Structure formats: C-alpha cells, structure tokens
Amino acid sequence: MNNITVNFRKATKKEEEIVRKEIGKHFGQEGLDSLQNRFLWIKDGKIKEVCALHPNIEAIVKTIPHNLYFAGIPIGSIKNNKFQLEIEGSALIRLTSKKVLHVKTDQFLYGKSIFTDNVFQFDEAFQSGDLVIIEGRNNIHYGVGETSISSEELKSALSNTVIIKGSKNIPRDRGWYLRKGN
Amino acid sequence: MKKELNCINPYKLGEEYDYDPYMIERFVEILGEEETSNLLQFNETKLNKTIRLNTLRSSIARTVELLERKRVQLEDIVGMPEAKEIINSPVPIGATPEYLGGYYMLQGKNSMLSSMILNPKSDELIGDFAAAPGGKTSHLAQLMNNEGTIIALELSSNRCRSLKSVLARMGVENTIILQYDTREIYKLDLMFDKILLDAPCSGSGVIISDHSRKQSKTLFDILNYHKYQTELLTESLRVLKPGGELVYCTCSLEPEENELVITKVLENFDCKIQELNIEGEVGLEKFQQHEFHPDIRKAKRIYPHTSKGEGFFIIKMVKEK
User: Does the model's ipTM exceed the 0.85 cut?
Assistant: First the structure.
C-alpha cells in the first residue's frame, strides 16, 4: 500500500535560478528577501510545483525516502523553464515587498479581470507586464496578477480598461481555494 | 424513575427520526432513556457554525473587527480565545475574502479541543495521524506558531490534495504531508514528542451534521472500525518517544471505538492516562460484556446535547519512560 511514487526533491541550481530571476525581475531585492532562510524544493509531476521550506523542515524531509506528498509552502510552478508565481508565493513576497495594487472589487477572487476603475491605490510604480500583488479592502491579500498597462498609463486610462486579466484556471487568486481547493 | 416516565420514549423517537433500531438500544444502554431522548431531539436541531481565528494570518482582534464590519455577529466560547460562534451572518461565512485569506477556519468547537489538549510546543516533532481535512493540523501549527515540525499522514491522495490546500490557505509552513498508512509509520524511523490520533470512526457523535449516519453504519462496521483504530493506536504508540504524549479522539460515541480500543492497547503499552480539565462525562467503566481499564474514567465523553456541539471521545496518554 505504501511506496507511492511522488518525487519530491531539492531544486536544482538551474531551477533555483529560474525562480529567483523571475521574482527578482518583478519584485527586486525586496522580493528576493522573502526567500531568505528558506530552501526551494520541487514536487515533480505534470508541472513542477515549487515550495519553500524552513531549514528544520528540510532536515526532516531529507530523511524521508518516499511517499512525501508536500512540505512547506507552495510558492509557484515551473513550466517550460519559466517560473509562475502563485497565491502563497505572492503572500510570502508581500511580507517584504510594497509592490501592491489595492482594489475595491472582489471580482478578482472569482477569476475575473480587474478594470482601472476598480483600482483605488498602488504603493509602487509598475510597468506594463509587471507582476503586482493584489489586495482588497482592509489590505486583505487577494493574490497576484500581471499588469496590462503601467502605473503611469493607469492615471489617464478609460475606466473600463483591463489592468489585470483574471483567469479561473491559474492559482493566482485566493478564490482558487473554493474553485479547485478540494 | 419519575423522570424516565416523563421523558419521550426514545424508541419511538428513534423510529420517528429514522434511526437504525440497534443505535437506540445502545444509546439507551450508555445514556439511559431520558438522555437518549434529549440526544435524539438535539440531533434534529441545527448547530450554529463556529470558526477558529487563525493567528498565523492575523490577530484575533483584527479578524473580529473585520468580521464585525461585515455585521457578522460573533460570540466568545469559554476557554477558547481563538474560537467564536457565529450567531448571525449576512455574508456567506465560508466564502468571504477573510476566509479565503486564511484568517479563520470553519471548525466545530469540540473538534478544537484535541489540539489544545495535546498542547504542542514550537520545538517539538508532532505527528498528526489521519490529518485531512486539516482543521486540527492547522490548529496545531497555530499553537506552535508555525515552528517545530508536524508530520501529517493521510492515506488517500484526494484527501492529501485538500489537506495541502487547507494548509496553504491557512499559511502553515511547518508541516510535511505524507501519503502514508499510519500502520507503517515505524518504517520511517522517526520518534515523535507528541501525537494526535483523530481516528477514522463511525461518526455517531456528529449525526447532527450528517443525518445519513442514522442508517449508514452497522454493528459490523463499528467492529471493523474498532480493529482499524486499535491498529492505528498501537502503531502510533510504537513511534512515540518515552515520556511522549498522545491524544486519541473520535467523533463516535460507540464504546468499541473508544474505551475498548484504549483498554486493548493498554495491555501492550505502559502508559498513564492524564486527567483532562474540560467539560464532559467520564469514560465508561463497562459496556455490554466489556469491562474497561479503570483509568478510562479519566477520558472524556462529550455528548452533543449537553455540550451543544459535536460528540467526541477524547483521552490523553503519556508513554512511560
């Protein structure tokens, strides 16, 4: 019954580089600081799931030869040599980064897009194509999204311009836990 | 005797509420006629939802404030600062941004007791053997302040997936999920400081939230659970450090799944049973042909109708050095 094959292993140097490069590109050194004192591990499968482990967890993980389903916190996935930051990765980065878009709609939690009219504040300038952390009212973390316009363009954009494209099939918003969590 | 005459006949109630008759006979043997009637009537009511506020994500005060702004009416639960009863909510409490953000978890108040009784520390290795769906695991992580290590075992792949999802939502970082049969845990060569064994059970304590249980389990099922639970507890005690502590609990009221399991296991392990400082009835001394270990009185039977929550059996064992 036991010995179920789940390959859970330490990230290779190349995989680490892919993850760090993507986080550094969008969130700079502040974003990378969130990974301090955490080790990156990979759960192999259709996609490579990336998780962050504290040293004491890693020490025990190393002694477990098989059947390890998951450990630590899932931060994203690697597909075609590209790292995709996901919900909990962005929550982790939020601890050290201020690159946040504050919205006044819950629509993002349903996998829907955010329009410029839904934005009430941003804490740091961003470019089109950047990843930003999305927060709702009361600074509640909603997830992470890719901007389709810059913070400069946001100021003069029409109210129905999409700034963050939503997706129901990518774990980037916290509504994912209701849609696919069980 | 007078009281017995005044109460509604539990056998008639059992018929009216569609219970398998064997269940009523057993309840009467454990509780007496009047209490059985009270239990059956209580099982037809609706429990208020309870939530556990997750201090890994936000302080208790802030989460209370955020929910109250949404006009969610909360009430404190005595002895459990992180637990609140939902008296009224104009919003779906299992789908708010705060819920999705892991600020709280829907969890029965009595189901929070086992983690509190285990009292895990932030430098300990904790075993949570039968961990899904993860309410108790994330509570353990909260009590440990996300430090130390929890090994969470779950055999089913689907349940591992939902366990992972719950732990991620709640911001739990100190847990390793193994898709593993607890009965083979000794193969991992780990010795645990403390273990929580919330054993799979027939669920006769939670009929209030699952009415299908009135008919879905037979006596044969209960005996099968007994066998499985005895194996799980035996193997759990094998990997508990000398001096280590184990909390065994089920949401079943059946003595075969509780007192009898403990009595059997104590034949092979040198353990002390600790007194529990919680509300509830003492463990049974005997049931039908079975006589139980005398220390079982230190266990607690929590009945739904007296606790206004789900039914539980809880016992804490300390392995001798």
Answer: yes
